[in-house]
Amino acid sequence: MLGLDDVVPDVAARLAELTEMGRIETDSQARHVIYREMSELMVDNCGEMTVLQVRDSVAHRTNIGNIVPAAHAFTPEFRYMTKK
Fold first, then answer.
1. CB 3.0-4.6 Å disulfide test: which of 4, 34, 52, 80 passes with 12?
2. Residues 14, 1: contact at Cβ < 8 Å?
């Protein structure tokens, strides 16, 4: 992750773990704690970095489904999102 696998593998592993945790966490306060740790690890270990954009969907509510990320990875395709 972020090219850290060969340089600091323990940090890369923790970032991968936090990424998975953040993807499934629906509680906004818990997600905030996860992303804060991710940000601190990236700032401490990545040197200069750009704003990261990922193609992965992130859960924000428990009653939203059919999230389809756009090809350019900046915004989800909102017209297909449904409320359960």
1. 4
2. no
Domain count, the chain: 2
- Global pTM value: 0.56
Assigned token pair, 17: 């773990």
Residue among 36, 38, 35 nearest 13 (CA): 38
If asked whether residues 35 and 64 sit together in one domain, one would say no
Calculate Rg over the CA atoms of the chain.
14
Whether residues 40 and 72 share a domain: the answer is: no
pLDDT in tens, 13-57: 999 999 999 888 888 889 889 988 988 888 788 766 555 555 555
